[in-house]
Amino acid sequence: MSQNQSRDIAVIGGGIGGLTAALAFARSGANVTVYEQAPALTEVGAGLQITPNGARALDALGLAQALAASGVTAQAVVPMDAMSSREITRFDLRTQSPQYRFYHRAALIDILARGCEGAGVAVKLGAQITALNPDGSFEANGATVRPALTVGADGIHSVVRRMINKPSGPFFTGQVAWRATIKTTKTDPVARIWMAPGRHMVTYPLIGGRLNIVAVQQRSQWAEEGWNHSDDPGNLRMAFADCGWEVKSILGEVEKTNLWGLFRHPVAENWHVGSVAILGDAAHPTLPFLAQGANLAIEDAYALARCCDAAASLDAGLRDYQVQRRARVVKAIEAANKNARNYHLSGVQRRIAHAGLRTMGKVAPAAFLNRLSWLYDYDVTA
Ligand SMILES: Cc1cc2nc3c(=O)[nH]c(=O)nc-3n(C[C@H](O)[C@H](O)[C@H](O)COP(=O)(O)OP(=O)(O)OC[C@H]3O[C@@H](n4cnc5c(N)ncnc54)[C@H](O)[C@@H]3O)c2cc1C
């Protein structure tokens, strides 16, 4: 029996996690309202990789066709030597099912928003929620909202997380990141990881002839947390000035870029208290080195709706949700943190690591995906 039937659910935050949760609850019969502080449901124009584990949940919510039409299907992950512009090896992604794809963030939000609209989800825009009462109720646009469940999907600076957890200070990782997109004629559907001592850059194509760029540099100075601080593209070019011609020619095309500091946050201790739950970046901000922040938020959202639907009480459903999710999320976050170290090696360590990748690509090409099968093959809908 569906426990979510006619339940009133409030979702705070209309990002990827919040909209996925809204859709998942609505599909199981709940009355869902999303409260989003921004005046429109959209995202800044950077890209996003949706890996098979995230795609499985989105497909199960009825979005398979729209997703296939809006993304670039990835054929490979290609580690590159950023200094020599040489391909180190190539790991084939074509066997992945569902497919691994690259999206504009705005396109993914649009697909989710249309899915929500079709499922009867109400969306209140310009609704910034500043506090919750202990019973999970809150003020929105001058009225008190008292849902059966309040879902905090309000991102890295989550108000809801702070209401149900002790304060936990983020710390600077010693890394800053730029993101940009450029016009490109190179639409080779692969994600390239350009590795250089103390730096790396990830590039992949998006629909519409653009190349998405995320470039990371180790640094002792802090940059502000949050994505929207514009920077001079000359600083980005300078950071990679000693790299090979291909990196320099890509960065030579950048006209606009944003810079931000990468901060680590501990995974929240409590993912639910009373009739309040959190998911996605609100529960576990994730560094972008494994392309999993949004994928984990999507998995959380699906799991939360399903656990609440299946358990005899809301409380039991929320407990099941945290038990099902926390260990997996911690493992993924640790794997992402480790990737940053491996990408930035220098000297002998770098030569050994590149030789190891080359050998793996020749002798055991399936080893790369086998190592990640715990991540990509996971089926939150099973
Ligand atoms: C450069 C970069 C590249 C990345 N690449 C990938 C990738 O390839 N694959 C991947 O899986 N992940 C990637 N990520 C991570 C991913 O973007 C995030 O983990 C994901 O967007 C988190 O989704 P969310 O819904 O939890 O939070 P958010 O996307 O932050 O959404 C939160 C929403 O809540 C709203 N909000 C916040 N506070 C309030 C409030 N008080 N009241 C009402 N509304 C509120 C915000 O306006 C926002 O719309 C990347 C991140 C970065 C920085």
Poorly predicted runs are: none
Q: What gross morphology would you assign?
A: globular
The averaged pLDDT comes out at 94
Q: First CA to last CA: what distance? A: 18 Å
**Rg, alpha carbons:** 21 Å
Q: What is the makeup of the main sheet? A: 9 strands, mixed
CATH homologous superfamily title of one domain:
FAD/NAD(P)-binding domain
Sheet-strand content, in percent, reads 25-35%
CATH topology grouping of one domain:
FAD/NAD(P)-binding domain
Bound molecules: flavin-adenine dinucleotide
Structure description:
The protein has a domain at 8-54 and 103-166 and 265-338: FAD/NAD(P)-binding domain (3-Layer(bba) Sandwich), CATH 3.50.50. Strand 10 and strand 11 (143-145) form a beta hairpin. The protein is globular and about 60 Å long. The protein has helices spanning 16-27, 52-70, 105-118, 159-164, 233-239, 245-252, 293-310, 314-343, 347-363, 367-371, 373-376; strands at residues 8-12, 31-36, 47-50, 72-73, 76-81, 86-87, 91-92, 101-104, 122-125, 138-140, 143-145, 149-152, 171-183, 190-196, 199-206, 210-218, 230-231, 257-264, 272-273, 276-278. The mean pLDDT is 94. By secondary structure, it is of the alpha+beta class. Strands 5, 6, 7, 13, 14, 15, 16, 17 and 18 form a 9-stranded mixed β-sheet that branches. Strands 9-2-1-12-20-19 form a 6-stranded mixed β-sheet. Strands 3-8-4 form a 3-stranded antiparallel β-sheet. It is built from 11 helices and 20 strands. Helix 7 (293-310) packs antiparallel against helix 8. 37% of the residues lie in helices and 25% in strands. The structure holds flavin-adenine dinucleotide.
